[in-house]
């Protein structure tokens, strides 16, 4: 089953939006349980593709910092679940799907044990350039035995390989965890547009349909990838 989403976030190319990751339907709740160590990743795809085929290009990733021994999820929790992501400045104007995800590795020492928490929102980009980044297919981008999917948190390690393709980089698009909880994103509005509906996957859909990893346990985080626009924190 699927439902149509009519909310669209309008944003300038090169501007920043905020994705929120929360366990509960409460924006003051923690981002993700502290036991769920792992990376954060964000992809985009043209809306016209409906997310099918080699259309998803990565615009953000953050994994493990060996100096602080912190994972992206640790830093995300310190920022009250808020992740700041910059839209590439040179991509073509138009409507896109924006997919935010985190990968929890607490059970990833077993094949199929990694837990991927994804969701998508729709954005409308203006003021960009002519770039049409090449992409990868989702499902299909990850394999069960990829180093960043099949990983033992209890082993001695100093590095971690983030799964998926390289980040698409425009002229200058810095991405970071939002450290100032009072920051808002300017000039972004959510509006209804019945002509630009997006299918949202029902929670009953199989994990393989979402991520293309047979046997990987899937869960949707409440309010995952919620666009935050001009709301007080």
Automatic annotation (TrEMBL):
GO terms for molecular function: cellulase activity; cellulose binding. GO terms for biological process: cellulose catabolic process. Residues 172-186 have a biased composition (Polar residues). InterPro entries: AA9, AA9_LPMO. Residues 4-155 form the Auxiliary Activity family 9 catalytic domain. Lytic polysaccharide monooxygenase (LMPO) that depolymerizes crystalline and amorphous polysaccharides via the oxidation of scissile alpha- or beta-(1-4)-glycosidic bonds, yielding C1 and/or C4 oxidation products. Catalysis by LPMOs requires the reduction of the active-site copper from Cu(II) to Cu(I) by a reducing agent and H(2)O(2) or O(2) as a cosubstrate. It catalyses: [(1->4)-beta-D-glucosyl]n+m + reduced acceptor + O2 = 4-dehydro-beta-D-glucosyl-[(1->4)-beta-D-glucosyl]n-1 + [(1->4)-beta-D-glucosyl]m + acceptor + H2O. One of its GO terms (cellular component) is extracellular region. Residues 171-209 are annotated as: Disordered. The keyword Hydrolase does not apply. Has a modular structure: an endo-beta-1,4-glucanase catalytic module at the N-terminus, a linker rich in serines and threonines, and a C-terminal carbohydrate-binding module (CBM). It comes from the Eukaryota. Its EC number is 1.14.99.56. It is found in: Secreted. This is AA9 family lytic polysaccharide monooxygenase. Residues 189-205 have a biased composition (Acidic residues). The keyword Disulfide bond applies. It comes from Coemansia reversa (strain ATCC 12441 / NRRL 1564).
